[in-house]
């Protein structure tokens, strides 16, 4: 089943699990995929920035994407196909869709500056991957340094046949969601799924502004699932209560650079992946940081028992 | 009394209060200064980035600095003197010190890239302002795009006669504090006060890593004062409890771009400044955002009564 | 006489002459101004990027601008008023116009990215300096990192009451001139003077594409005057012959960073300014570079006797 | 024969020839390779930035590299292996060396800022490609936005077993060559071949500062070969005379963005490649620009008959 503008809920951004020596850990891919399904995710996004995609060569990227897709079951899989050139983007997009992906995700290259450069890029990208492949527009200025106004996003979507979703991670971004939903109310923008990123740091209010859910990699996707559900059902205070209980840890995990190391460490503590290793160049966290995370987990666990990790880890 | 490497506690980063029409609001400067003293701050930093310093002309900058200094009483006043050139930097630094400032703060210009460019710049800056003026090194890569390793900071400090404080706001930055304190333990770095910024987003752990306090503009400096005190007294859990209660609001206020609008709105709600106006170009917050802030304030108030604002504001 | 969209010819970008100890050299300002008039310039632009404007404090900037204006005679003087904030921009613009400037020049701050950010900035800048002051739009992406499409330039000009000139220094930029002139042919852009910069590196073809002249600081403005005149009179080959004879030196002088040091050195050799000193931070050229420049001057002098400098300089 | 620190002369940066429809044009690769050999080049560098390497997928990159290598005869082939991650870099480096490449070239990723980040990156890159592969360090701040001081280059080279050449294209860069040669004179830097890029814009003086030759893509490598030879034999004036005759065209070809379109157009006019097509996203040159290039060619031909192109092209 391919991705549509009606998509909603939680799409987990998956890290790529490696063995300590840097080889791809396929067993952990399977376990991670199962985990996302079990906690109630609707989809999983692989080979994103967080997924260390640029550190894989072309053959490895295919292997990883196919492994997630094969295991995914009911989960929709979105494959990040951002690449320095369209040939590589097309090759991976085709392979992924043939293997059963629900759609692909495209981020703009950092060199784009003007509105026209940005809209032209996405027109060419859609042409490159070929007709009929649903794709997700990634809007992530903090990391990509490409700034898209709501109007530019509207132009991209309205120019396109197949852009069905926005991965929203502008920062700040609440007004952007309101602006895009306003465009839809005035009839100038067609239906578009908006899932929000930024580690979930503003998920509480993003839902209230009109987001359809989250696409982010916080190591407790189960919390994201609950907050999205509570918020959509109108249980505002409960949504915030649960969100706020996690916020100290979520904030810690959302740090640029070291965030992935924290996330892999927590997923490892939760028993989901075997190793927290990253490929070079990658950040690591030392004993002090691990103790800080453990302290935060214990504090979260006072409200959310899922953070009470039964698996104690060895000292460094 | 001039600033020294023994400085600690909370130095509030002061916004510059304007009337709705953009004129400087001197009565609000006085009230704001008094407020910082009443809530227990040790100092106040004026004409920083947050203080809209670049929007003032040279004469206005002097007026603002002198007004804060005159009112400050026991508070130490640090004046931001960052400028595109050394002549303007020197002029403001001299004026500020003559008026009674405790020290000045210098941020690097965004064009600096290599280690040598950075260390040379600060050597020239110190020479420009003249001997004997204690100064604060601002390390804020997210906004300034200048990246200083711990070793470069050490070179700057050890080259300098008068650099007594680091305004730490690298992000992530916990390991940087640990690295600098490690340099001091191994004897390669002389005493240096480290106050942390970034809106206070990591103050809880920054204190535990060895920070001497906070220099940031969160609209509840009273909370910052308490967390710094609790943390220094070893009351770890209480420090985190109070910090966590404020974190949802603090995070909201720390958004780039709109953060200052939120902060001025809260300070206005607290009755400290008369208007939330910024000079152009500036962000504003609309009714939805104000309602979000009010909701967050009400939630904070369940734990910290200081957030229960008695002064209801009119609807927009 | 104020600047209009009919302006053409050569506007020299003036360096700011300093004494060796960094003080402003007013006698050299006078001599430099006279020189520009004698060689046939139509105007002079002061306090630009090349003019080390950011290294002057506010009072000094006024002194420099007024000195040039007072001496200018028939030359139209454009004053660079770019500043981090509108208050400083307004103050200098008012002072300059009252002293007799023909207009002011405004460059965008490097933080601008989207088309809307750019057009909004110039609308606010025009509002800030006040009605009726003719201004020059500076388009210099290489240094300022702000990219304006021809359409954005059109929006800025058509939104404005008083933007009468484009300082064109996009690189590459030939197609941009053609595009803007095309807009005028199709009636969508009102009259606009286009003077080109970039050290004159493409002046030969820029004239053929429709530029009205040059606004740049090459140390032989006499050559620029001749090339503009030859090109406008249809003497294409002669224009290129003269231009090409200077190109090796012009290229050498157009190097970022050290270019100003070369330029001041040549102007000093020509007897126009007393010292080649720059304020810190500034580049210097050593003995090898000076010898390279001398060699290039000697080669130019085979075709253009004005480059045969009679004033030998002492060895370092 | 693998690359060594004794390498000198001219290494042409090869464009990748495409058919009009974007397919790789292998016949033109062969003709281009032959051409470089016939005009006296010592080597050829393929899959560089100019070679549109990021627009090829991994399989295509291998095909292109192997085709050049197979045809190269006496020419040493350097393969650009810069990649967003080490896995892709390693894969291409291994393939290239097995196919007979003389070495590989590595550019830093744009995200690197501090001296330590830069030196660490190249240490990891060398480790990734594996021992014993000679590599070229590319120093190209204008495009890559990574600034390396001479000291950092020295650290990289002295840390490395296998870095044998610097592709020097800092701008300005003359003093950098002098600084590096000074390091060698004082014994702190081991032997290192320095070939200069930047389209050859400063080749005349770069040779005099101590460069070993050129590595650049100017469409008249025959001129580069002559200038390098003349300069090394001490025929200074002749070297400059020939260089200066080409400079107007060389400057035109060195424009960022459109330069490659000009270069491919000239190579097509010279009968070396069949089509000037680039893959998207790519610049094109229109009728006016082509006529400008033709005019420049005719002017060069007055001094250098090789620019008198016998093959007239059809009007657009």
From TrEMBL, chains A, B, C, D:
Pyruvate binds at residue 215. Transmembrane segments: none annotated. Pfam families: DHDPS. GO terms for cellular component: cytosol. Keywords: Lyase. It comes from the Bacteria. InterPro entries: Aldolase_TIM, DapA-like. One of its GO terms (molecular function) is 4-hydroxy-tetrahydrodipicolinate synthase activity. Belongs to the DapA family. This is 4-hydroxy-tetrahydrodipicolinate synthase. It comes from Rhodopseudomonas faecalis.
């Amino acid at each position: 089943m391919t991705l549509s503008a009606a998509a909603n809920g939680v799409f987990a951004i998956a890290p790529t699990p490696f063995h300590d020596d840097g080889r791809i850990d396929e067993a952990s891919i399977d376990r991670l995929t199962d985990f996302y399904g079990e906690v109630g995710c609707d989809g999983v996004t692989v080979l994103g920035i967080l997924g260390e995609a640029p550190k894989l060569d072309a053959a490895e990227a295919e292997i990883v994407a196919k492994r997630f897709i094969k295991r995914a079951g009911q989960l929709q899989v979105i494959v990040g196909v951002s690449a320095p050139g369209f040939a590589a983007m097309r090759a991976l997009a085709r392979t992924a869709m043939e293997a059963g992906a629900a759609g692909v995700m495209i981020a703009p290259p950092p060199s784009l500056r003007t509105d026209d450069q940005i809209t032209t890029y996405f027109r060419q990208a859609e042409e490159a991957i070929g007709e009929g492949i649903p794709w997700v527009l990634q809007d992530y200025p903090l990391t990509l340094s490409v700034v898209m106004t709501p109007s530019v996003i509207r132009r991209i979507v309205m120019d396109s046949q197949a852009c069905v979703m926005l991965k929203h991670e502008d920062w700040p971004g609440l007004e952007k969601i309101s602006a895009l939903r306003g465009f839809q109310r005035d009839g100038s923008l067609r239906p578009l799924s908006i899932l929000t990123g930024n580690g979930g740091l503003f998920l509480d209010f993003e839902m209230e502004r009109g987001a359809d859910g989250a696409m982010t990699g916080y190591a407790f996707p189960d919390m994201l699932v609950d907050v999205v559900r509570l918020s959509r059902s109108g249980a505002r205070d409960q949504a915030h209560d649960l969100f706020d209980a996690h916020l100290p840890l979520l904030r810690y995990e959302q740090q640029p650079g070291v965030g992935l190391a924290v996330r892999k460490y927590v997923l490892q503590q939760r028993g989901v992946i075997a190793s927290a290793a990253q490929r070079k160049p990658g950040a690591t966290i030392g004993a002090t940081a691990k103790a800080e995370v453990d302290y935060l987990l214990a504090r979260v666990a006072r409200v959310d028992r899922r953070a009470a990790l039964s698996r104690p880890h060895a000292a460094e």
